[in-house]
Task: structure prediction
Amino acid sequence: MRYMLIIRNGEDHPRPGDERWDQLMADYGAFSAQLASYGTPFSGDPLAPPDTATTVRVKNGETLVTDGPFAETKEWFSGYYILDVESLDQALMAAGMVPSAQWGSVEVRPVMDM
Result:
């Protein structure tokens, strides 16, 4: 079964240039290596901060484009992993090992087969 780990970070999460950034990237490298050592097929990518986002909405046939995220939030979607594991418990265990979980949250959601 596939699960998406949706990583949300709080305002105090390290960003590029922060002295904690290099350690965080090393922690993500170790996390990915650990997943690989378990034989867990996965993919994932980080996302740029929300101030780089553009939001597109369609209302009454009109396309509206807005700079930045549409909603104000204290946590922002910073990346994801998609895991192919045998159970929700395995996905939850992996979510608890995501390095950024200490600054925000990791939502675990099944990926629908279409």
